[in-house]
């Protein structure tokens, strides 16, 4: 049994019940392998490891490895593109993690279910939505893994209010477009990770939630002032489908677009 979800910067994988793979390398990706149940028989650079629940092993880019699982065993694998972990303002440095790590499997399993649910059933076709999930994964790894990498927020300062103001102005002017976290972070002169955290500190919500709120506010005005169909309003405001529009409208307005128009 196996399942896998991949974005531009991360891959989330779960294998179970005697899953096995062949020896391979990842040229520009880190891999975090965590048995969450039973036993994982892992080989890394021809060295065997017998990993039990919570005994994580890190594979740095280019490391040869393979593994197999016992019956009734399962493993979570997180892969991260190396440039996503490069310290800010460091063009060449890459973190060196300790090979062996201890992971809270209960916490990881809960987070894994949330991340995969967001990517599979959420608005993953929206750049901001998928990028925010990527950032959640990166934040978890930064605070959990130990090694030669910066922990927490000690890089740079918080985004100044003037920069947040510029970001908000940009979002108000472009809310109907496919807005990227990288574009917004560039305006704020921050890394993606620090920008999302700073934006939430300043506004109380994530950039993607703020974008949806702007779209819903405009939809309210048009539902009351025009005879446009719900589908036309949805499409013109950047929603990929009417079901996404209905979900967002219900979340922020507390009723469906049709109910709002009739109210």
Automatic annotation (TrEMBL):
Q: What SMART domains does the annotation carry? A: HTH_ARAC
Q: Which UniProt keywords apply?
A: Activator, DNA-binding, Transcription, Transcription regulation
Q: Where is the HTH araC/xylS-type domain?
A: 165-263
Q: Does the keyword Transcription regulation apply?
A: yes
Q: Which domain of life is it from?
A: Bacteria
Positions in coiled-coil regions: none
Which molecular function terms from Gene Ontology are attached? Answer: DNA-binding transcription factor activity; sequence-specific DNA binding
Q: Which Pfam family would be a valid example here?
A: AraC_binding
Entry protein name: HTH araC/xylS-type domain-containing protein
Q: Which organism is it from?
A: Paenibacillus albilobatus
The record lists the lineage as:
Bacteria, Bacillati, Bacillota, Bacilli, Bacillales
